[in-house]
């Protein structure tokens, strides 16, 4: 029997980067904690054991007794609140939080918060570069990948900042009750993570938590109004969209027979001067500009950044041209919406047809929205991964289908299928964890296979 008078402790659920950052945070503040993980070898266990050799760790299952005894459960984003052991503890009255909620209470500088199904990392990186161009001392992190990947709580260990810029996933927002961002946005929405959410509506509701107690909000006029129906008129300081803008709106206007980005009647820059290619990146650029303006970044710094920033790896990244065929790495295309954008963007700069490499873990997505663009631009799809049969059953006769057992085999088949002026595009519309560590690993494997072609 547990002692109700015993001191309460935090229970950190999950020992990845987020869980490790929570442990560091509590340790520095002298708060008691335990860590539990249902894996026997979670990814950050070696680092944790070095930093906290005497801390309590329970591996292999989520102990109900430990969860029930917790003063508070600190849930890593990879673990759903619907997990049976977690749900039982919540029902028993144990409070649950996450690292973003904890961060928002501790942060002393304004927060720029960005979520959406696609484009988050690009927009966050653009805003960060704009802020640096203005001379601000910033902290950048959250759900970013690669070298820029810094868990939010670890940002607090890096000294005082003028501004925090966070990429936030729906998983992180599930446990975020009052973010209080200076400015927040949902860039866009498309089907994703339906293996975690019961419905698209549940996914959208998780995203909308980013606006809780925000001071300012930026909205996308091209998206469904449902994303923004929790906001007041006073919170919405700017919108962006592909149409002609009104007052306090960013949009595209025709000036001297050329498309310009404008804020109302104010011309900002020619659209062609934005270095990032594609219509989707024009939208990303306007979102970043609106967010930067909301926190006082100078227009000159923002325009300079938009002229100079060339993009992130694994997002419609041009790898090489070999014998008249262009190869593009869009491994970050982990959902149908992202792949639709990638196909359109690459098709617009390709004189021939496309060979698409797709497949992986579909996350319960509906692949049928791909069919019109496959029919219009793609002459062959090469399928890889766990849900290749599901994709094939949807594509049917829309285009030619081939199967490959590895990314290397897929690249070889694509090279044989492509002719002069064609393009080969890796944009899987699926997650990568059936065959790879993550999307970056998949992208690197694709690039290596393309570079090996002769």
TrEMBL record:
Pathway: Cell wall biogenesis; peptidoglycan biosynthesis. Residues 314-430 form the Mur ligase C-terminal domain. It is found in: Cytoplasm. ATP binds at residues 116-122. It comes from the Bacteria. Belongs to the MurCDEF family. Gene3D superfamilies: Mur ligase, C-terminal domain, Mur-like, catalytic domain, NAD(P)-binding Rossmann-like Domain. Residues 114-291 form the Mur ligase central domain. Cell wall formation. Catalyzes the addition of glutamate to the nucleotide precursor UDP-N-acetylmuramoyl-L-alanine (UMA). It catalyses: UDP-N-acetyl-alpha-D-muramoyl-L-alanine + D-glutamate + ATP = UDP-N-acetyl-alpha-D-muramoyl-L-alanyl-D-glutamate + ADP + phosphate + H(+). GO terms for molecular function: ATP binding; UDP-N-acetylmuramoylalanine-D-glutamate ligase activity. GO terms for cellular component: cytoplasm. Keywords: ATP-binding, Cell cycle, Cell division, Cell shape, Cell wall biogenesis/degradation, Cytoplasm, Ligase, Nucleotide-binding, Peptidoglycan synthesis. This is UDP-N-acetylmuramoylalanine--D-glutamate ligase. PANTHER family: UDP-N-ACETYLMURAMOYLALANINE--D-GLUTAMATE LIGASE. The gene is murD. Its EC number is 6.3.2.9.
């Amino acid at each position: 029997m547990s002692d109700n008078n015993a001191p309460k402790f935090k229970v950190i659920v999950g020992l990845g980067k987020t869980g490790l950052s929570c442990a560091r945070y509590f340790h520095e503040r002298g708060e008691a904690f335990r860590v539990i993980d249902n894996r026997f070898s979670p990814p950050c266990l070696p680092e944790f054991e070095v930093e906290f050799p005497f801390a309590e760790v329970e591996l292999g299952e989520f102990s109900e007794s430990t969860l029930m005894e917790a003063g508070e459960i600190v849930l890593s984003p990879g673990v759903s609140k619907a997990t049976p052991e977690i749900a039982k503890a919540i029902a028993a009255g144990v409070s649950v939080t996450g690292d973003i909620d904890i961060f928002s209470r501790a942060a002393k500088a304004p927060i720029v918060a960005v979520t959406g199904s696609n484009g988050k990392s690009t927009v966050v990186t653009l805003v960060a570069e704009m802020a640096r161009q203005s001379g601000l001392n910033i902290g950048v992190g959250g759900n970013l990948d690669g070298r820029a990947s810094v868990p939010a709580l670890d940002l607090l260990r890096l000294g005082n900042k003028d501004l925090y810029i966070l990429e936030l996933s729906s998983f992180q927002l599930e446990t975020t009750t009052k973010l209080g961002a200076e400015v927040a946005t949902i860039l866009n929405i498309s089907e994703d993570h339906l293996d975690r959410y019961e419905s698209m509506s549940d996914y959208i509701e998780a995203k909308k938590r980013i606006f809780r107690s925000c001071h300012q909000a930026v909205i996308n006029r091209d998206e469904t109004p449902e994303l923004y129906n929790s906001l007041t008129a006073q919170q919405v300081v700017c919108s962006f969209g592909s149409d002609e803008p009104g007052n306090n709106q960013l949009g595209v206007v025709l000036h001297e027979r050329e498309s310009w980005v404008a804020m109302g009647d104010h011309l900002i820059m020619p659209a062609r001067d934005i270095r990032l290619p594609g219509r989707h990146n024009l939208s990303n650029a306007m979102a970043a500009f609106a967010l930067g303006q909301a926190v006082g970044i100078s227009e000159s710094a923002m325009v300079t950044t938009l002229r100079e920033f060339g993009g992130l790896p694994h997002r419609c990244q041009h790898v090489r041209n070999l014998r008249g065929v262009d190869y593009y790495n869009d491994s970050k295309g982990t959902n149908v919406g992202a792949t639709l954008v990638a196909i359109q963007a690459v098709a617009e700069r390709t004189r021939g047809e496309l060979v698409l490499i797709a497949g992986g873990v579909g996350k319960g997505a509906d692949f049928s929205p791909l069919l019109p663009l496959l029919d219009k631009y793609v002459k062959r799809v090469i399928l890889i991964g766990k849900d290749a049969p599901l994709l094939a059953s949807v594509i049917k006769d829309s285009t030619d289908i081939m199967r490959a057992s590895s990314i290397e085999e897929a690249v070889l088949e694509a090279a044989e299928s492509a002719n002069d002026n064609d393009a080969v595009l890796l944009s899987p519309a699926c997650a990568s964890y059936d065959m790879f560590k993550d999307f970056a690993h998949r992208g690197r494997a694709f690039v290596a296979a393309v570079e090996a072609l002769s």
